[in-house]
Amino acid sequence: SVLAGNYDYSYFDYAAMGGKRNHIVYQQDAAAGHAYVLYSAYKKFGDEKYLNGAKSALEALLSLKESRFYEVLMPFGAITAARINAEEGTSYNIGKILDWTFDGCTAEDGRTGWGILSERWGDYDIYGLQGSLTHEGGYGFLMNTFDMAWPLISMVKYSPEYSKTIGKWMLNTANATRLFYPYEMPDENQWLPELKGITKNVIGYEGVKKIDAYNKESLKGVSPVALGDGPNWVVSQPKESMFSIYGSAHVGIFGAIIEETNVDQILKLDCQATDFYGEKNYPIFLYYNPYEVSKVISYHNNSEENVDLYDIVSGTIVTYKVDTEGEFSIPANEAMLIVVIPADSEIEYKDGRAIINQKIAFYL
User: Residue 233: is its pLDDT beyond 90?
Assistant: First the structure.
């Protein structure tokens, strides 16, 4: 390939067909995004050159000595590694990529401190937001946070061992993300409460910061603060630009994945929703129980046939022959990865896969 496994560039010039460098720090996590796109092309077109390219990009990513997480691409390396491991029999180190994502960029010559926030600011939990861990105490961004769910929720169907970790992260993230929206954040913690009506509560602020970035008198000593970068980038940028259309547009990722259950704080997460070009033969849902006691979760069957609910994590059927309504118990502080299969199915286990009716149902 043109890059030959070298991603030590600030950007790629498609006119010149080559990597280029300027004042922007090198963005080596582009290898993760490159791997994702190439493997998607392989699944769509079947050409081995795309598979080989995806593997080359992953190997370039994993050869790095430290995290080079720059913006949104690093977790796409995790889903790609998980898929290729499951589907092609490789053994790429998914844990390393996840650590690099959550712990953040540590390279002094990279975007140092870019990762996943895990703190409480003032009276608010901001656990799970993606952004800067270090800039003036921390700065979470709406678009980046939405985008994390795209690769990570579907990743667990290929690597069920991460079900609890990702389920716990998603619950915290779903909770904290509300703080970007002006009707969910108290007026005293946001920059433009007097203009929030123009958002119709469907447009959120670009970011949530530990402290105000503009030294507004009413926000001194307040934490956190919902705001945006627009006026900082361009002086003439109107203050209304703090409301982020580009970030809010990605809410569909959460909308496709998240569904409430009958138990507050236990979410039903659709692992198939953002698994583009993946096999989706049977529904798969991730549940995480944050409570210190087990909880009973209701399940509504939308299909015309009776179904069994099989938990991939424990390797057991937890509910048999659900007609319209069923339920299952989820243990305290645990996750369940439920695949919905036809009742009384015969499951064949072969090469790390579970086969039902000659179709891949799930990976082990």
Answer: no
d(CA 31, CA 63): 11
- The span from the first CA to the last CA of the chain, in angstroms, equals 33
Local confidence band at 224 (pLDDT 50, 70, 90 cut-offs): very high
Using CB atoms within 10 Å of the CB of residue 47, give its burial: 0 to 12 exposed, 13 to 18 middle, 19+ buried.
exposed
- Domain 261-363 fold is Immunoglobulin-like (2.60.40)
What are the beta bridge partners of residue 243?
A: 205
CB 317, CB 305: distance < 8 Å: no
Alpha-carbon gap, residue 243 to 38, rounded angstroms: 34
Is 4's pLDDT higher than 90?
A: no
Listed by start position, the domains of the chain span 1-111, 117-260, 261-363
Helix (H, G, I), strand (E, B) or coil at 184: coil
Q: Where are the beta strands (DSSP E) in 14-52?
A: 18-20
For the segment 56-69, the average pLDDT, to the nearest whole number, is 96
In three-state secondary structure terms, 78 is: helix
31 close to 57: Cβ distance less than 8 angstroms: yes
Task: Residue 213: name the closest of 132, 136, 131 by CA.
Answer: 136
pLDDT of 330 over the 90 cut: yes
Q: What's the CA gap between 130 and 126, in Å, rounded?
A: 10
Handedness of CA 111, 8, 74, 99 (dihedral sign): negative
How many C-alpha atoms does 205 have within 13 Å on its Cβ side? 31
